[in-house]
Write a structure and sequence with these properties.
Layout: H1 2-8, E1 17-23, E2 26-32, H2 34-38, H3 47-53, E3 58-61, H4 64-77, E4 84-88, E5 92-96, H5 107-120, H6 133-142, H7 154-158, H8 170-178, H9 192-199, H10 201-211, E6 228-237, H11 240-260, E7 263-274, E8 279-290, H12 293-301, E9 313-325, H13 343-356, E10 364-366, E11 376-378, E12 399-410, E13 420-423, E14 426-439, E15 451-458, E16 463-469, E17 479-485
Parallel strand pairs: 1-3
Antiparallel strand pairs: 1-2, 4-5, 6-9, 7-8, 7-9, 10-11, 12-13, 12-17, 13-14, 14-15, 15-16, 16-17
Helix pairs in contact: 6-10, 9-10, 11-12
Amino acid sequence: MTDYFAIRRPALRNSPFVLAVPDHGRMRVTMASQRAQALGVHNGMVVADARVLVPSIEVLDDKPEWAARLLRALALWCARYTPVAAIDEPDSLVLDVTGCTHLWGDEQTYLNEIVTRLTTSGYHVQGAMADTIGAAWAIARYGRHTPIIETGHQKSAILSLPPAALRLQPVILERLLKLGLHQIGQFIDMPSGALRRRFGNEMLLRINQAVGTIDEPILPVEPLEPYHERLPCLDPICTAGGIEIALTRLLDALCMRLRNEGKGLRTAIFKCYRLDGKMEQMAIGTNRPSVNAKHLFKLFAEKIPGIEPDLGIELFILEASGVDALLPGQARIWSGSCTLEDSGLAELLDRVANKVGKDAIRRYLPAEHYWPERSVTVAASLADKPATAWPDDRPRPIHILARPEPIEVTAPIPDYPPMLFRYKGKLHKVKKADGPERIEHEWWLESSRHRDYYSVEDEDGARYWLFRSGHYEGKTSSKWFLHGFFS
């Protein structure tokens, strides 16, 4: 965390400073810069004591969440090197580099690239590679020789290291030192029972994790999508043409994989990692599962102009965040009118939704409810099937209001249609009318009054759908509403 402050304030790079938080009425050091540590200041020291050692030391306020936020940001930055990056508090990152190192040539070049990039940015970094997290952690902090441990040699690599390399609690470390055990090799092969009795289960757990007899899980900062493709670039990409080439390669690879597994893409995210550490991304969605790389490319291509490559893009990632089973299409004997099963219709809707937004296009299906405003439902996709058939035995208006709007009505009694009604300040004289049609609400859903609907036409030829709520109870108590427009 002190490196971050030195990066933000270059004047601190050659000066001793600490981060501190209030602790029972006094300030306590949470992190000390390397210059301050060289002068005897250490974490946990009271700031007043640190000032005695270094009178010119600068004290900065610290917040507990800052270190975690910085580690998360660095872990996300490491996505250009591996899809699995995790945080190991308080000051470490764990990367699963399986299958990644060959893209940089070999393991040594790969590790050097990561360490050099972070060091150039202003961070003090130590890194190591091993089969286990425990061994890599130990070598990165206490190793004095090669930072890369060959497969199967993690035990021999840590024998000469101090017990602190096993990530043990201070009380255990103090007990080991009192017994004269200053290297891991002095006790690692002791009987398990003896180690458990003297030092507890933690000692055995850390030893087994380091040598690899017990797996240590990695919890990545971002869940790894099961369907994704990566394309690192040897040279930064700065042009739209380069981005299009990268996208084409990723789409071809991803669609081939999905097709082989009988799946199709529904939603996808295209991520572009820039040299400056920032990430540009764009997302698309489809109405049907698709493995048509050309169609998917057209959806992304409309958004490529919005990507700002800045100094260049060094990594492209394409994630299929949503996939569905890919149903085999039926071969056509002859071509006829377009249906919902037509792939051309689905692709047309995808392109329109990509321009105006997916919420601007809706498909409605009949719902099993009597009240008109509840008798339709929005379909999630073109594949949704209606629960019931569309009712066609009664006339219904073209436009139904989401909520009926109250109107003033002059009507004979008891069940005659209105002669006049006022809607939004305008008086309409009814010339023709049809009704009533009584529609009851489902009693098992809620208690409400029935409705008596009338189809009416005014003197201008406009047709409306009106209803009276409940039985007629006199001019002052009867409530009328306008619910739809026929034309």
